[in-house]
Each structure stands twice: as structure tokens, then as C-alpha cells.
Amino acid sequence: MAKVSVLNVAVLENPSPFHSPFRFEISFECSEDLADDLEWKIIYVGSAESEEFDQILDSVLVGPVPAGRHMFVFQADAPNPSLIPETDAVGVTVVLITCTYHGQEFIRVGYYVNNEYPSPELRESPPPKPDFSQLQRNILASNPRVTRFHINWDNNMDSLEAIENQDPALGCGLPLSCAPVKGLGLPGCIPGLVPENSMDCI
Amino acid sequence: MKLLKPTWVNHNGKPIFSVDIHPDGTKFATGGQGQDSGKVVIWNMSPVLQEDDEKDENIPKMLCQMDNHLACVNCVRWSNSGMYLASGGDDKLIMVWKRATYIGPSTVFGSSGKLANVEQWRCVSILRSHSGDVMDVAWSPHDAWLASCSVDNTVVIWNAVKFPEILATLRGHSGLVKGLTWDPVGKYIASQADDRSLKVWRTLDWQLETSITKPFDEKFNPKIFKKKQKNGSSAKPSCPYCCCAVGSKDRSLSVWLTCLKRPLVVIHELFDKSIMDISWTLNGLGILVCSMDGSVAFLDFSQDELGDPLSEEEKSRIHQSTYGKSLAIMTEAQLSTAVIENPEMLKYQRRQQQQQLDQKSASARETSSATSVAGVVNGESLEDIRKNLLKKQVETRTADGRRRITPLCIAQLDTGDFSTAFFNSIPLSGSLAGTMLSSHNNPQLLPLDSSTPNSFGTSKPSTEPVATAGARPAGDTVSKDSVNATSTPAASSPSVLTTPSKIEPMKAFDSRFTERSKATPGAPALTSVTPTTMERLKEQNLVKELRPRDLLESSSDSDEKVPVAKPSSLSKRKLELEVETVEKKKKGRPRKESRLMPVSLSVQSPAALTAEKDAVCLSVPAPALKLPMPGPQRAFTLQVSSDPSMYIEVENEVTAVGGVKLSRLKCNREGKEWETVLTSRILTAAGSCDVVCVACEKRMLSVFSACGRRLLPPILLPSPISTLHCTGFYVMALTAAATLSVWDVHRQVVVVKEESLHSILAGSDMTVSQILLTQHGIPVMNLSDGKAYCFNPSLSTWNLVSDKQDSLAQCADFRSSLPPQDAMLCSGPLAIVQGRASTSGRQAARLFSVPHVVQQETTLAYLENQVAAALTLQSSHEYRHWLLLYARYLVNEGSTEEGAVEGATAGHRAESPLSAPLHRVSGAARYSEGQVACLGLPWLQQGQDHTLATDNAQDHLSPRQATEGRGDTGRRWAVLRQHRPSSLGRLPLFPGPVASSEEGSSADNSSLPSGPLCRAGAGALPCCPGVSEALPGLASPARSRGGH
After folding, report:
1. Residue B259 vs residues B172, B226, B231, B262: alpha-carbon distances, Å
2. Mutation target among A9, A27, A112 for the B interface, most CBs of B within 10 A
3. What is the pLDDT of residues B366-398, one digit of tens each?
4. Half-sphere exposure in the Cβ direction for B295 (13 Å, CA)
5. Does residue A136 sit within a domain?
6. What are the start-end ranges of the E strands in B544-584?
7. What's the confidence (pLDDT) of residue B312?
8. Name one GO biological process term (chain A) (predicted).
9. What residues contact residue B313 under an 8 Å CB cut-off, 6+ apart?
10. Concatenated DSSP letters for B428-492?
């Protein structure tokens, strides 16, 4: 059973200009005191076509985490526009919030993000080269796509056995090339566990 | 014997392996396979037992579901006290669940189910010891031990007082252990295994007492899968007998009485797959049976069939004679006086004392932590905490330079119970946010019949006519009607004042979204009541929990508000009686466009009226129609909007100044609060982001601005208020005499003046099931007969805008013309009134082979009705939607006959020649095939250009392109011509140049004297952002053809 469950993620300051930082207020519940910190990441999917363009906007450690309900605000800078393919700058993409414990990802919250020009003129005739200063970012906050993964919380090998047969919930994964890819082990990951996290390796 | 298969008890088709009824008989648990994990669900029992409850939308069916097991759940068992639930599964774990009483309903974040957990059960212990799947668990009598058995051939005895302590591991079986049972006094435990043996173990030293193998050697029927015996004995003649139900792998269920040689009944083909588990009800007359096929059946026997059950005393006498005196057969009362016969009893007594101590300290902890939380909340509301969280949270750098945030603890975890009441965002202090509704009832409420809580449950006690003062005969039907009414019409309609509807435009991005677009049920629970009241309420079956309510999911920062009644408010408010209804709802940002406020009310029949005595005196001679009135309440809270967060709090007769009792009105808007006092009791209140109005006794209506300024001296209503409503600056008052008034308090004009509802209600027992006030101040009445009327202020007429029985709607088939993502287009008053478009039209075509021409005609007529209705409702989105649909239909059908589209133009562009204002041209302008005029309306979003027409030649679609477009996608293109309707009359038919002329726009332009050519659908997109948002389905082919 997951020791940490996310209760809510509130998207703050949404919509906002493209260059303003992402801010998520995350509340989660922990059923037992955690020995180590949780690691949260915000990943911006630069292009639906390839994971190559994923950007890890930031990663923070959160701790100490005693049993109870907690909240914090995770702020991360806007993605680097130069890393985003021009054709994908305007339109719908995805931002992911992931949380790992001991290097194992146990939850992934995905949001659709719509980048568009707020002004009708620009919308009608967008500049050939995307003008990021004019773009507005709108996160579809009401529709988080949450994927949970079973991980080993205790670091003992006994319970590992129970988990390895569990297929992570791929079914509800994100359609935009965000489906976890198996087999890409992360350093620090326990062998036998599937670190359903391909983004982190980029 | 009655047999029922409640289809709503299911795990979405996945197998159910276990079922167990709670000892108090009010709920039952099922365990089995979940989506990608094991699943335990707790269900409400009453909908199984009573048909009425099953139909009552306000009674929740599912209470809680837990997906925590990693793999399939094989068994669920309630402890005898009912306090705990143990579940064991293929993940080798046993989880022990306990109800967390302090937490209100909640949903799982991001869950697609959107079903709120009405009750919160959380895992308090995880028992790990087995090395194989856990097959069965069993609580000992008095819950001292929990036994579990597994495919690892062992039975583990857990100390149920001190989890996860293991008292013993019983080894001896040579095959997987499938089942366990304790004897009724807890002296022995029996385990049955795949090695074809049944072993009986002593609880004294956990050694094997005996092993029974003989009967199984040959006679054991492998088909008998699960056997469960309960109900002790039934004494019919003189000899007590047992009743036993056997479910088997051959899918049959048999019920045996030990006094009979043949089974009492055998039922075949009850399920598609094997029976997995059986559980008897409390009274021993009913059984729940679950099957691998994922369904559950309920059998109800009569006493004649099974016999009269023995009383507890008789049972314990039998037990005593069989097993000797033991602790388990004694009741608490007996125990203190009983002579202790064995060390077990001594141990038990000690344990009891210890438990009492534990409980005391636990409750002490609870109170202390509760106060500490309250302290936090009082000092600083959670809203405040949230506002400053970023600044306040502690951020450090680790040695390797990484950011590290110390999270803010917002609640302690206390033995599985959260002592805090709030969840995501709601401050609990005096300034209550969210949708908390607290009704402080008068003492005379108590003798009321059970319908009353229903009306409380309907989340709008303030506006709904709650039968309060004295028991009136009609009260029952009134509230029931209204409850039903709210839940039936247009499932998608938000039935709450506070949550306006909005459909996310992005929903359509994924088809999965549309399926779950509307359900965000909230489920209030009755929480704090003074003990005596609670008992009395219970007796009258008043304590009911509200069914999760469907609400349109709406917000962009959708917070789940879980306000919970704060116990301390009892003492604070010093109320003698208090019932707090708590409701959880998904908050939504009101979409300006479609901000509607539906409520429910009903009309009493004149007969009921005469029987009714009301405290409020009527100054107007009672008319034939009379609407129910809200009774005076001590206090109530009403959420006006969630974004900005705004709510109204009313407390009647709070302060007495010189013998005069004053009522207080408080309004909190995003943390800013204002309050005022009124001299008479406030009956009902309503508000919008712009105004707040309250109706008081003596027919007074006071209106305040959102900032608390009194806008008008009190308005004297012609008769007492029935329902009050606000949308924007519009205030609508429906009086008990069934007259309706709408005022625009901003411009200070009357929109609808004391209009009587007689014309739409007269003659029958119809009730008003729903009221809307659109953002343009147009009132819409949804009646119980499925018709909906809106009042057209300019014509002073009631216009029929929707009819559920409309045969046109049932025959119309325009599916082919729908854009792929239709759902999101249909948000607005018309959609709310009409509900989801049904597919009946399509089916009609298949069912009774309507001639195509007839269907075409009906479809055209229907679409035209829709266009007109949207126009009358001044719903721009819907108008555009239906008009486009109509146009598309005309083109699709390629009708040789004349298609009709009502073209209305508006002065959206100064330079455009098309500047006739809408209301002058709203007559019928008819066009020939494929030629449609379409236009902006003055009340379309200001500043936005909604015309489908353009002068930009680039946007013109050449006929050749149009033709190719047709060929490519099968989607035909409509060439819309914008035309100045010369008058209200018909336009001459134009030769159809849609796909005929070689040269594109110039030829067309030359043939048309005025009005530029444009294309509809995709072609219109570049010039019409509004439409491009609305019609992404059209947008994509346009883009894909970009390189063409």
C-alpha cells in the first residue's frame, strides 16, 4: 500500500504568461513517517512527437515527512523556449508532476497545457516564429490525469516479491507519448522494480 | 422467498470473491478484483433491503471503496463489533480498516470514478507474515483475535488488540488453507484445507485438538466451494436446528435446514460463474451471495420458511451447555458479576480494563489534537495558510545544493483517525466557506416525518421549501417531489445554487473525458447533533446520508471543498438543537456565459394547501396556486459562488436590542467580510457575484451590493416569498402566490413584473421541478411534465423551449451533422433545460422505419425549434451551435427542398453593411440549399467578432476546394452566404453555386449583390475564434489540409 497518497494538486496562477513560473500547491497524506525525503519533479513536455524535448523544470526534495497531511507549493521556472520545437510552441502539450521515493516513481500527475496567443490578431495570423512573450499558458487544471505505481516503500526484499508482478497502471497513462517505458532503470533503483519513468533519464 | 440481484453492486464487472454484512446490518463489504489492484467496497444495505431506498437518489449506494490492496482481495470480514474490517488478498497482506469519523466525504484525486466516498475507511494496520495469498480471515468472538489462512499452508493468529502482534502460527496443514471459522465462544478455531482435512485448534494453547479427515476422503464434493453457517439455531417445534447455506462451484445455491433431509431450496443458474461467498443478514433471514461473475444476489426469506430464530439468551444457553462457561457467551453485564472459571476470562477482564483506559486516552488525544487544529484554523484560516504558503514554507539547500522543502503539516494522523475536519481548502472557523449548509432547526422539527432530512439533503435548505413549522400533511410529498425532481431532470444540470455549470472545452480532447464529464458527486453526512437529538433522529430514521450528487465538474482549479461541521460550534452557538448538514462539492469557477441557478421547488395542490397552516400571514387572498414557502430557520449558510469564493451566512434573532430581536446577515467574499442586521427574520437568501438579497418575514425583500451596500430600501413583495434567485444583477423572486418577478437592480428596471405562473401550471398537478435564471435575466421554469417554459420579457409571453415528450425531438436525426465533439458545445440554459441530447431520433429511424423525407422534415422542424429556443433564451453559444448544426444538416442532406435558416445579423462591424440589429431581423429569412446566413448577435461576447463572414479573400473557399473537401473527408462544406435580409420576409432563392462555378469567390460575389462570401465550418475558422474553439472537430481537417 502506498504510504503517500496525493490528495490534491491545485494549479496556482493559471492561466499565466508563458514565461511565468509554474506553481502547484500539492497536498498529500502520509500514512507512516517516512525515513527519507520525497522527490518531486515538474517535467514539461516540449513536443508530443518525442521525449527528446522533455524538460525537467525543477526537482525538489520534500521532507521530513511524518505521518499526516501536508502541503507545499512547488514552484519551477518556465521551460526554456529555445528547447521547444517551433512547431510545437503553440497548441496543446503536457506538464507532468512526478514524485519518487527512493528513486521509485509512485505517482505521476499529468495536465494538459494549452499555449496560445490571447490576442485575436495573433491567433488569426500567428507569427512564423513563435513569440513566447505573447503566449499564454493555460493548464487544464480540472483534468489531472493521475497514474499511480506500486513501489516498494520499505526497502526490504520481502515485499518486493509481491510487487514485481504488478503491472503499473498503464491504461490510464497519458496519451501524449507519456506512457511509461519499461526497462529504463534509474541509478539507485532496486532491480526488479520497474522504474516507470522514462522522462527522468533524459 | 424473495430474490434480488442488485446490479449496482459490482466491481465494474471484475470478480467479487467475498461478501460480508456488517454486524449492525446497515452496510456490507465486498472484496475482489479492481482495475489494477485489489478492491474492497463498502455498500449501503438499505437500498438492497428496500426498493424505495434503492430508487431514492439521495441515499448513497456505495459508501467507500479502497483500492489499496496490491492484488485481488480474497476475503473481507467485519469484526464482531463492526468497528474494523479485515481484508486479505493475493498480495499476501491483511489490511485492517477502521472508519475515520472526522473526515468528510472525499474523492480520490484524479480518479475517473468521481464517486465520493461517503464514509472514510482507512487502513490502520497492515499485517505481513504470510508468504502466499491470503485466502480467508476470521475474527474471534469478542474480537480478541484475528485468524488468517493462506496458500502457504499456515494459519496465523493475530492479536487483534495489538496489531500486528502474532500470537501463533498454526502449522500442520499439508495443503493450502482455504477457510477458517471460530466456534461461537472462541474456544476453538477450525481450518479447512486443500489437503482434504479440517483441523480444530484449541485457543488455549494453540495446539491441534483434532483433525477430521474421514468424511472428506471420498465424499467430499469438490464442487462445494464455500460453506457458511450462521444463524445459530431456530427453535421451531422443540428441537433447535441450524440453517445453512451452501454455494457451489456449479453456480447453484442451496439452503439447508438441519432438521430436514432435503435442502429447503436449491437455486440454479443464479450466476454466470461460481459462487464465492455468502453472508447472512443480522436477523438471519436474508443472505447475500457473491459470485466470480462480479455480481451479488440477495435472498430474503420469511420466518415461516426458516423458523423463528432463538433469542440471544437461548443461544447462549445452548452454547453454554455445549462448551461450558466461557467469556464469549456472556454479555458485558453478566461478565462483571460472573464467577471467573478460567484464566481466559481473567485475561479478558484485564483486557477490557486496558481497553477502557486506551479509549480514554485516545479520546483525550483526539480532543487535544482537535483543539490544536482548531487553534490553527481560528488563528489563520486554511485559505490564509494557502495564500502565504509559498512565502512561509521552509526551503533549505541540501549538502549537494538541492532544494529541499519542508512541507507544512495540516493535519496529524492519529491512530488512523484524522482529528481534523478539513481537507483541501476550507477554513472551519466562524467564517465558513464552501458549501456548508447548516440548518438549525426548531424543536418542533423533531416530530416531522422522515421526509425532512431529504430536503435538508438537497443542499439548498435555504431556498427550498422545507417543511419546517409543524408537521404538515403535504410536507412529505413536497419535499419528496422536489428531491426527485432535482435529481431527475437533465442529470447534468447542477442542482445547486452554488455551482454553476460549465463544461470544460478540453474535455473533448479525449473521449474518456466526456464520459465522466459531469459526475462530481458530493455527499454530505450528518455529523454533529447533540446526543439526545441524535437518538431521536435515528429512531425516526432521520439520519440519512445524502447520495452523491451529480454536479457538473467545473473548475479550472477544482478544489474539493470538504467542509465539516465543527463540533465545537455546538457550544459556541449554544444552540439547543443543531443539525449540520455537510456537503462536499466540487467547486467551480462560474462561467460567465452560462451562469445559471437552478433550484427546485414544487407546487402544492390546493387540497394540500388548505390543510396547511402557515405562520406567515397572507395579505393576498389565497389564489388557486400556492407555492411552498421556506420556513424560518435559526441559521443557514449559502454559498454564492466558488470563484471568487463567496458565501452568505444568516443568523436569525441573534441579538436583542431593547427587546427587538435582530437577524444578522454576513457575507464573505474572498476573505473580505461584511455584515449587517435586519429587523425581521430572514427566510431565504440568494446572491450572485454582484448582488446579495434576502427575503424576510413580512414580505420584505432587501437587496445589497456584493460589497454590502444596500441598493434599495426594502421591497414589499405582493405575497410571501417562495424562492429567491440571483444571477448577475438580476434578482428573481417567486412568491407563494405563484407570481414571478425579475428585476435588474443595476439598471433599476423591472424585467418581469409579477407574472403569474397560472398559465403554465393551471389545470393539473404539475410542479415546477427546476428554475433557472439566465445571465440575461430570463426566467425558465422546468415543469414536472417535462415541459420547460421561458418567459419572454419583450413579448410578455411564456414560450415553450423544451418538451421531453416532443415527438419532433424523438424523430429528429441530425447525428450526421454533429461535430465530433458535440458535448462541449451544448452548455447553456437550453442544454440544462433539455438535458443531454438523446439518441432516440436515431433509434426511431431504425425502430419504425420512418420515411427519410419525414425524418428530414421533423429534423428540420426540430432544429428550427432549437434555434428559436436558443435565440429566445439569448444563449449565444447555443444559438451558434444549433444554427451551425442546422446549416450543416441542410448541406449534408443536400436537400432539393428549401432549407430554412434563420439568419440574424447584427452590427458587429461598423464598416459592414450588415448592421441591422438583431431584434429587427429575427424573423424568418429563408435560403436555398447550402446558403446560410449566420451572424453575431448583440449579446454575443462583447468585443469579439463572431461573424462567419469575412472580407478577407484568403479565407474564401473556392468551390473546387469545397468539392475536394467533400471527396476527401466525406464532410461537406457549407458555403454560407451572409446576406442582409431585406425584410422579415423570405429571400429569393439563389441559384446554388456551392460547387458549380469554376471560378471561386469572384464568381460568387458577382452573383450575389451584397454580402461577402465565406465558408462555414472549417473555412470559417480563421476569422472566427469563437467558432474555432467550439468546433475543434472541424478545425483538424482544415489544418490537415493546410498544405493542399
Report:
1. 34, 21, 14, 9
2. A27
3. 444 433 333 343 445 667 777 777 777 888 888
4. 14
5. yes
6. 560-561, 579-582
7. 65
8. DNA replication-dependent chromatin assembly
9. none
10. -SSS--TT-EEE---GGGTTS-THHHHHHHTT-TTTS----SS--TTHHHHHHHHHHHHHSS-TT
CB pairs under 8 A between A and B: 160
Is the predicted ipTM greater than 0.90, yes or no? no
Domain membership flag for residue A175: no
Distance CA B236, CA B232 (A): 13
B93: pLDDT strictly greater than 50: yes
Q: A122 lies in a domain?
A: yes
* A114–B506 CB contact, under 8 Å: yes
User: Which of A34, A143, A170 to mutate: most B Cβ within 10 Å?
Assistant: A143
For residue B95, list chain A residues with Cβ-Cβ distance below 8 A: 1
DSSP-based three-state secondary structure for B234:
strand
Question: Domain of A100: which CATH number?
Answer: 2.60.40.1490
Phi/psi at B16 (5° precision): -110, 120
Residue A178 lies in a domain: no
Residues B1007, B996 contacting (CB under 8 angstroms)? no
Can you tell me the mean pLDDT for B979-1006?
Answer: 33
Distance CA(B77)–CA(B80), nearest Å, equals 9
Residue B568 has pLDDT above 50, yes or no: no
Q: Which residues constitute the domain of residue A94?
A: 4-148
Burial class (CB in 10 A: 0-12, 13-18, 19+), B421: buried
Taking an 8 Å cut-off on Cβ atoms, the answer to whether B506 and A70 are in contact is no
Residues on chain B touching A169 (C-beta within 8 angstroms): 35-36
Helix, strand, or coil (residue B1028)? helix
B36–A166 C-beta distance less than 8 A: yes
The yes-or-no verdict on residue B923 having pLDDT over 60 is no
Burial B820-836 (b: 16+ CB within 10 A, else e): ebbbbbbbbbbbbbbbe
Rg (CA), chain A: 18
Q: Please give the tally of structural domains in chain A.
A: 1
Query: Is residue B841 within 8 Å of residue B859, measured between CB atoms?
Result: yes
B104 contacts B564 by C-beta, under 8 angstroms: yes
Q: Check residue B974 and report its DSSP letter.
A: P
Query: Which domains does chain B carry?
Result: 2-102+113-212 (2.130.10.10)
Strand intervals (E) in B627-785: 635-642, 645-657, 660-669, 672-678, 682-687, 691-696, 700-705, 715-716, 721-727, 730-735, 739-744, 749-756, 768-773, 779-783
The model's pTM is 0.42
Cβ separation of B556 and A65 shorter than 8 Å?
A: no
In the block, cell 517535467 appears at A43
Lowest mean pLDDT among B59-68, B196-205, B277-286: B277-286
Residue B64 CA, chain-centre distance (Å), reads 14
Q: How far is B511 from chain A (nearest CA, A)?
A: 12
**Which chain A residue has its CA at the smallest distance from B382's CA?**
A71
- The predicted-structure confidence for A102-136, as pLDDT tens digits, reads as follows 999 999 999 988 998 988 888 888 888 888 998 99
Chain A residue with minimum CA distance to B95: A1
- CA distance linking residue B918 with residue B936, whole number of Å: 9
With CA atoms as reference, the chain A residue closest to B393 would be A72
Give B818-869 pLDDT, tens digit per residue.
766 554 456 677 777 776 544 444 444 444 455 677 778 888 888 888 888 8
Sheet containing B73-78, strands listed edge to edge, beginning at the edge strand earlier in sequence: B73-78, B84-89, B93-99, B121-128
Residue A79, pLDDT score = 93
- CB-based contact B140:B182 (threshold 8 Å): yes
Closest by alpha carbon to B725, among B756, B694, B752? B694
Top pLDDT among B229 and B654 is at B654
| Separation in Å, CA of A141 to nearest CA in chain B | 5
Chain A, 114 to 153: residues with Cβ < 8 Å from chain B are 114, 120, 123-124, 139-146, 150
